[in-house]
Design a protein that fits this description.
The chain has helices spanning 11-30, 43-53, 55-81, 87-102, 105-110, 116-135, 141-152, 161-168, 172-184, 213-219, 225-229, 234-252, 297-306, and strands at 157-158, 188-191, 207-210, 259-263, 269-276, 279-286, 310-317, 323-324, 328-332. By secondary structure, it is α+β, with helices and mostly antiparallel strands. It folds into two domains: 11-110, no CATH class; 119-335, Winged helix-like DNA-binding domain superfamily/Winged helix DNA-binding domain (Arc Repressor Mutant, subunit A, Orthogonal Bundle). Strands 4-5-6-7-9-8 form a six-stranded mixed β-sheet. α1 (11-30) packs parallel to α4 (87-102) and α8 (161-168) packs across α9. The longest helix has 27 residues, at 55-81. The model has no long low-confidence stretch (mean pLDDT 86).
Length: 338
């Protein structure tokens, strides 16, 4: 019986095996595209909308396919440069193929239509029981879970460390430490106040926001979209969503912009502020779908205070249409990522 050596597997054999793994990965991607179930007598009526609803699935398939194709191209070029296969190289190739074989898995999860309640429940439990215990030596996980809920009730509000500590029955320093944990694990972030005083007394506390508005709604006990419509915290949730989207866009696109909010001692404020050469860009987030003059009052007040600096004013509202007005930009919440 012949003994195994590094020369036993030829370059052509390893390349063929690798190509087979790539081919299987691409094939598995197609299985995530399922034919919509439509009654035969309703095909002409419902098929267009059903296909439109599958656009995210098609997009995921195309992106995943191109990703596999990119990795295959890289692998093909690499193998053309190989002159001899040894054991370390063989295992490196196996680990590389292990990554490739995993690519069809995330699209399959995406296609499962997991109930948001189930998802966020499991997410929160895993986060508290695994991530938090690694970030800090927490013994009272129940109190920490309560603390996250209290933070959710204060989204888009000024941070009051003492109030959080008192309601959760923890010390002031513990509240600060737990907020730091939530921030370092990208659950929340803080928006700092703009400090140029314009001869006004300004607040100095930051405002608290959640990166994931879905998680925020789950923590607030909101399970259906209709529940939010009648909830007094709707405006805060809407503001959280808008500010979080700008913050995430800033990070993901490496825009390196510094965002603030502005608020004086009389509670006059603008939700989002960015310093620009010669002036400011300010943004107000309003959940209403109806535009009226009162929605612009805070931005107008800031413009008067900031004079003679130029102020670019944008209202982001709950409606569907953008508008261009003489003094303002009116932007639909649906278009803030454009």
């Amino acid at each position: 019986m012949s003994r195994y050596t590094d020369e036993t597997i030829s370059i052509a054999r390893l390349t063929s095996f690798s190509d087979g793994v790539f081919a299987i990965a691409v094939t598995l991607l197609v299985f995530n595209l399922k034919v919509p179930h439509i009654a035969a007598n309703l095909v002409h009526e419902q098929l267009p909308s059903a296909m439109l609803g599958m656009l995210p699935n098609f997009s995921t398939y195309i992106i995943s396919f191109l990703l596999v194709a990119t990795y295959w191209t890289f692998h093909h070029r690499m193998m053309n440069l190989v002159e001899r296969i040894d054991t370390p190289f063989l295992w490196m190739n196996i680990y590389y193929l292990l990554v490739i074989s995993f690519i069809p898995f995330p699209p399959a999860i995406f296609d499962r239509d997991i109930d948001p309640i189930v998802f966020y429940s499991n997410y929160l439990q895993t986060y508290i029981e695994k991530d938090v215990t690694e970030l800090a030596n927490l013994r009272d996980l129940k109190a920490f879970r309560t603390f996250i809920g209290l933070c959710a009730g204060r989204s888009a509000q000024l941070v009051n460390f003492s109030a959080l500590a008192n309601e959760c029955d923890i010390s002031h320093n513990t509240a600060k430490a737990w907020l730091s944990i939530l921030e370092s694990s990208y659950i929340i972030f803080f928006l700092q106040p703009y400090h140029q005083n314009f001869n006004k007394r300004l607040v100095k506390s930051p405002k608290l926001y959640f990166y994931d508005t879905g998680l925020l709604n789950y923590l607030l006990g909101i399970r259906e979209a209709g529940e939010l419509e009648e909830n007094r915290i709707k405006g805060a949730v809407f503001e959280n969503m808008i500010v979080a989207e700008y913050q995430k866009k800033n990070h993901h696109l490496y825009l390196h912009k510094d965002y603030y909010f502005w608020q004086d001692s009389n509670a006059h404020e603008v939700d989002l502020l960015m310093k620009k050469p010669g002036g400011f860009a300010v943004f107000e987030a309003k959940a209403t779908q109806t535009i009226n003059s009162t929605l612009f009052e805070e931005m107008d007040r800031f413009e008067q205070i900031a004079a003679p600096s130029k102020v670019n004013k944008t209202l982001i509202y709950g409606g569907a249409e953008n508008e261009k007005r003489t003094k303002y930009n009116v932007l639909s919440w649906k278009n803030i990522s454009d």
